[in-house]
Design a protein that fits this description.
CATH topology of the largest domain: Aldehyde Dehydrogenase, Chain A, domain 1
Number of domains: 2
Helix content: 25-40%
Radius of gyration: 23 Å
Distance between the termini: 72 Å
Number of strands: 22
Number of helices: 14
CATH class of the largest domain: Alpha Beta
CATH superfamily of the largest domain: Aldehyde Dehydrogenase, Chain A, domain 1
Structural class: alpha/beta
Shape: globular
CATH architecture of the largest domain: 3-Layer(aba) Sandwich
Largest sheet: 7 strands, mixed
């Protein structure tokens, strides 16, 4: 049983859309209909906008400590319900239950962190040039926020926006992905039960283009936050320009992995295979271009393929499953296209390479070797369970290849040499770099890319700063 009633949240009330429109929610592992998702009408969206304006006034007026108490209660509720919420997440997204539980726990942790950090939105006193003047710098919430979250991480994508906005004192209208709505709704119930004032958090669904166009065009929101594709990010940024809304854009990636000659091969392989195929490779920071030093290349390819062949693929709620389905049939077609193109350019399939079963959107975890740089998969983000590998011989050439794309989200480096690690990490054009590890996302550290992977950060103090604006007050005393 799915376990979540799909509703809109507008002005503190959970309800259906006013025009009765909606769509079915499909389980990507079984292709069964889980529930019916309501869509917000234009009138509903306008009501959410007006509610967010009233909610902002009420929420901004609360002290940081008062906001902390409510957010902490919500975090506790999310943690208490994490297994139930994780089951919802797995049924709508497909990832293994263990991954979902970890993601929901991250969401509780991030909510607590932002609740605390909201008490540290410090200003400063600037010494004046003349007597009798006080110069004060204040940090205040930017205003109502509109946010759009992608389907690949239904919990963490949503909570970074919700908790960041609330921690800063902003209200927020969130449109989660229609493919994965239940997780955000479950979070919203926790916040409402924790005592969040009406209108501070609103949840809406609908045709993505129509919803975003209406919300972003309104003068009420003062900030746009998106986790999505580069194409959508460019579109929303153009729309936001008409009202000069500030933006945070967490967009696509195509993360290079550089395995230097002295890397610990076995540990590197274990780590890369585990992280490459989590969420079926549908991760913006997923390792997606594997550059391996020629001295290790054959052993790396063989070891990688052997590990990939052992992965257990299936329904994320089943015991022992390590990789679930893709989100939709369109992603299966994309995998077929990328593999066929790579093979036509000389690559060899050394593991997987085909669809699995006749029910659900399953694709075998796949590894390719000898992939030409001209292959589409080396320039188009695969966002799926395909690992293309190729060899390199010298430092300068591999850095040039790693930096050859417009993306700049995550990069990964493996070496035992600290000097070589530092030289590599400083040469890479990326917002996130992992050295001998893949953990580049925690509640307390900034998460974001450069170039066409977007700009701005979520999480960390930078994530709170994104929802704040600066006010300077010069106060002159009169006798």
């Amino acid at each position: 049983m799915y376990g979540e009633k799909l509703e809109l949240l507008i002005d503190g009330k959970f309800r259906q859309g006013s025009e009765g429109k909606g769509e079915d929610l499909i389980n990507p592992a079984t292709e069964e209909v889980l529930a019916h998702l309501p869509h917000a009408s234009t009138a509903d969206l306008e009501e959410a906008l007006q509610a967010s304006q009233r909610g902002f006034i009420a929420w901004k007026a609360k002290t940081a400590q008062e906001r902390y108490v409510i957010m902490s209660k919500a975090a506790n509720l999310i943690e208490e319900r994490k297994e139930a919420i994780a089951r919802i997440l797995t049924m709508e997204n497909g990832k293994p239950l263990a991954e979902s539980i970890g993601e929901v726990q991250f969401s509780a942790d991030a909510t607590r962190w932002y609740a605390e950090e909201g008490k540290r939105a410090y200003g400063r006193i600037v010494p004046a040039r003349v007597p009798g003047v006080r110069q004060m710098v204040f940090k205040e919430p930017v205003g109502p926020v509109v946010a759009f979250a992608a389907w690949n991480f239904p919990a963490s994508n949503a909570i970074r926006k919700i908790a960041g906005a609330l921690g800063a004192g902003c209200s927020i209208i969130l449109k989660p992905a229609e493919e994965t709505p239940g997780t955000a709704i479950a979070f919203a119930r926790a916040f409402q039960e924790a005592g969040l004032p009406d209108g501070v958090l609103n949840i809406v669904f609908g045709n993505p283009a129509e919803v975003s166009e209406y919300l972003v065009a309104s003068p009420i929101p003062k900030k746009v936050s998106l986790t999505g594709s580069t194409r959508v990010g460019k579109l929303l940024q153009k729309q936001a320009a008409d009202t000069l809304k500030r933006c945070t854009m967490e967009l696509g990636g195509h993360a290079p992995v550089i395995v230097h000659h002295d890397a610990d091969l076995e540990k590197t392989l274990d780590m890369l295979v585990a992280f490459k195929y989590r969420n079926a490779g549908q991760v913006c920071t997923s390792p997606t271009r594997f550059y391996v030093h020629e001295s290790l290349y054959d052993k790396f390819a063989a070891g990688f393929a052997e590990r990939v062949s052992r992965l257990k693929v299936g329904y994320g709620l089943d015991e022992g499953v390590q990789m679930g389905p893709m989100i939709a049939p369109r992603r299966l077609d994309a995998m077929d296209k990328l593999i066929a193109d790579a093979v036509s350019n000389g690559a060899k399939v050394i593991a997987g390479g085909e669809r699995l079963g006749n029910k659900g959107y399953f694709f075998a975890p796949t590894a390719l070797r000898d992939v030409n740089d001209n292959a589409l998969i080396m320039s188009e983000e695969p966002f799926g369970p395909i690992a293309p590998t190729t060899a390199f011989s010298d430092f300068d050439s591999v850095i040039e290849r790693a930096n050859s794309l417009e993306y700049g989200l995550a990069s990964f480096v493996f070496t035992k040499d600290l000097h070589l690690a530092q030289k590599t990490e400083m040469a890479l054009n990326a917002g996130l770099v992992g050295v001998n590890g893949m953990a580049v996302s925690t509640p307390e550290t900034p998460f974001g890319g450069v170039n066409e992977s977007g700009y701005g950060s979520e999480s960390g103090t930078e994530g709170l700063e994104a929802f704040l604006r600066t006010k300077f007050v010069s106060e002159t005393g009169w006798a």
